[in-house]
Amino acid sequence: MEILIIGIGGIAGALSRYAIGKYLSRIAFLSFPTATFLINVTGSFFLGLLAMNMVQHPTGGLIEKYGFQVGFLGAYTTFSTFTYESIRLIEEGEWMIFFLYTAGSTIAGLVACLIGISLKFI
């Protein structure tokens, strides 16, 4: 049952990432990888929120743990694209955008996760 739940969540996460990326690619700022940045930051927020909910309610369901945390967020967020885009920025000589992207992604992701953890509303 866990595999099926992860698979359904993964499909939803991958399709969400694709749709958001496609939409944001039309309104992207310069060569800054806006879509990956926003996807990874929002994914960090939701993982923090869901992880804290699992701590508060350890008997949480399979759908939350496997469907959302492993499946959806695993397919939605993307470290590999982040690293690839970072290397491309270096190759293109976009050093300022590279530093903004890598430092900004790390800091914003940590802050977003911390905000999610601190909400504790469920």
From TrEMBL:
Residue spans crossing the bilayer: 35-54, 66-84, 96-119
A single GO cellular-component term on record: plasma membrane
Keyword Cell wall biogenesis/degradation belongs to the record: no
Chain sites annotated for binding Na(+): G74, T77
Activity regulation: Na(+) is not transported, but it plays an essential structural role and its presence is essential for fluoride channel function.
Catalyses which reaction(s): fluoride(in) = fluoride(out)
Record-level Gene Ontology MF annotations: fluoride channel activity; metal ion binding
GO biological process: cellular detoxification of fluoride
Keyword set includes Glycosyltransferase: no
Function (record text): Fluoride-specific ion channel. Important for reducing fluoride concentration in the cell, thus reducing its toxicity.
Protein name: Fluoride-specific ion channel FluC
Species annotation: Heliobacterium modesticaldum (strain ATCC 51547 / Ice1)
Gene: fluC
